[in-house]
Amino acid sequence: MAGSQLVGTRKLVTLLVIDGDIQVPEGGSGRGRPSPYPWRDMKVGDSFFTLFPGVRGAVQYAQRKKYGRYTVRKRKEDGVVGFRVWRVA
Question: Rounded to the nearest 5°, which phi and psi values hold at 11?
Fold first, then answer.
C-alpha cells in the first residue's frame, strides 16, 4: 500500500505497490527489448539508412557483441540528411 514518512526535512512518498500473485506473461525472446536495427539479419554488403545520429554508438555495440563489422557514413538521400550503415565483414 502506498504511504509516506518523514525523513529529515523531506517527506518520502512511496508510490509502488508490491504484488506477489502476478504471473510473468508468455512470449518474448528472453533477450530484453528488441533492437531497432537488423544486425543479426544483415549479410556483408547489406546496408540501411537512418536519421538517428546515435546509430554510431549502436554500431559500436553491435561490433562488441560480434554481430559483424560495420561502417557508417553521413549522407544526403532523396533530400534527407541521415546515416547509411553498411555491413563490411
Answer: -100, 120
Q: How far apart are CA 70 and CA 15, in angstroms?
A: 44
Residue 22: per-residue pLDDT: 77
* pTM, two decimal places: 0.63
Of 81, 56, 53, 82, the C-alpha closest to 71 is 56
Query: Contact, 84 vs 47, CB < 8 A?
Result: yes
Q: What is the pLDDT of residue 73?
A: 94
Q: Which residues of 42-63 are buried (b: 16+ CB within 10 A; e: fewer)?
A: beeeeeeeeeeeebeebbeebe
